Amino acid sequence: MDKALNIVNVVIPNAYRRETRFFWFFSLFITFLLFGGFASNWISNPDVLGRISLVTGLHGAFSVAWYLLLLNQIQLSGAGRYSAHKNLGKLSLLLVIAILITGPMMALEFYQRLTDFGIFNPEDAQARIRAGGFLGGTLLQWLIFLALYILGILNISNPAHHKRFMVAAAIQLMPEGLNRFTHLLALPGYSMFVLMFLIYVTLMAYDWKIKSRIYISTLLSFGLFLVLAVAMNTVFKTQAWGDWAVGMVNSL
């Protein structure tokens, strides 16, 4: 009997440590891809650094802090330091609020810059479609990020779902950096969605390998990603949406 209890006490912590290790490296990979996209853009186009505004700088700083906090939170949870994990978790709320304020402000700055360059010329029908795609995709991205974060908070008492929703929120912010990669490497626009799809496939494969099932939190997160991918390649590419979105922004 004592031997059986000892086996349980050893197996469960080891399994949990392996899961923590997977999610930490998985999140590190996501972080590397996201900020690697920005870094590669700065290296190949150093003039871009001179155009970084205060809002963009703040948004970048808040985003970096959020990803570093995510990595640290995974480590704290894996080490059983739940009190520290809970206390630092409160900081994530402030960072999410800051990201959701500065993100749309940064997007509007970028929209105005491209409008001034004529790329988003409101008098050009095709330019309005391009602008509508950018505005719609950006808005939906922030909304899904917020939804995943809220789902993570609501499932804080369920570590498996809590962890997966938070990691999915990190995946949801990837288009910002992946766009830089695709432009730099002259890859088609859909390659960004292919890479994000493969990242979710990796997460689902892990669920299946370890638990012989896919967590509902993983499936729901993947479903929200599909909503973004489909919307950006259908609704947000229509003339009607472009005309409406540009009209709304220009009326602000």
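^ that was protein a. below is b, sequence first then the tokens
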Amino acid sequence: MAGGEIAHAERAHALLSASASHRWLHCPPSARLEETLPDTTSEAANRGTLAHEISELKLRKAFTDQMPTRKYNAALKKFKAQALYEPVMEEHTNAYLDYVQKIVHSFPSPPFVAIERKVDYSDYAPEGFGTSDCIVVGSRQLHVIDYKNGSGVPVGAEDNPQMKLYALGALKAFSLLFPVDTVHLAIVQPKVRAEPSEWSLSAADLLAWGKSIKPIAQQAFNGEGAYQLGDHCKFCRAVGRCPAQVKRAFEAGESLPVKPPPLSTWAEFAEALRRVEPVVAWFTGAKKLALSEVLKGTELPGWKAVEGRGSRDYADLDKAFAHLREKGIEEAVLYKRQPLTLPQLEEALTKAVYKELLEDAGHVSKKPGAPTLAPEDDKRPAYNGQVKPEDVFSTPPEQS
């Protein structure tokens, strides 16, 4: 990291942060609600921070800092010595660097490149600011590029509010020196997709969107508006204890379609599934939250923590197997040779080598997944295969 730079984990965050904009734009009062709760982190988040610091180092050496090779290698060595470092970070951060280089080289004349630039979008969201991973501007084009290290949730650039807020901040910072007609957003997420997600819009459309969200942002800043439930709840600090979630849980049972025997119709059954599904998801998460609080010493009337099912392990594997061999047990009984699964091999080889040596060479066959029930608004296409109930269930469900 260049001298004077603030470490990623130590940077200040706005109440209306760009990274949480998907949440406060859908549920305005969540911003102030989250403010009352302690921020938490995880090993995955800390690993992502490390990957960002490595990627920043590589981009600064390539575009903005006259960094001697010895200094760069010493800094990279320190990052690699950290406990959370994974060898695959080298491949992934190189992919990010390659993409930025491709963008820079696409300009007819050298563009301006800003790395980890703090941007101000307070014209649209009160006291709003954030740090954009990479901004490239010139020739009436603005590129805002974000690196994401996560593997669990794919993040797309299309209509992404975080990226649009960064772009608004970049326009404010650079448009006087670099007039912009078109804005390009890109998210590089190597653990999820081989190619970056890209989306473009005109600068005029971006400014119009910024103007359209100002009333919502003001509501969020004031802690006003109605709580709204949705997929934006997943990473909210208040998830589980959110008043809207608790209210829905109480109301779900009261609103379920109920009729006398013999059976509900399939339409009533489907409606019950639709209403109960989010409550079941909330209950599962709420129990985990409650357990963590009880283990901290918080008293939850009517609940306690108990010891779950235990497990067995070798006290000392080497000594145990040496003892068994002394007693005449053959090694063939003790060991089972088993090939790595494809996901394990992909991680061991890296995605590029795995694709070249296995997928492209025709050594991987892909089978469709088993049918699973999903809400009607799920983005996946409806399953159209002919499947018998007994192929899915061990015991076919009774028909009404």
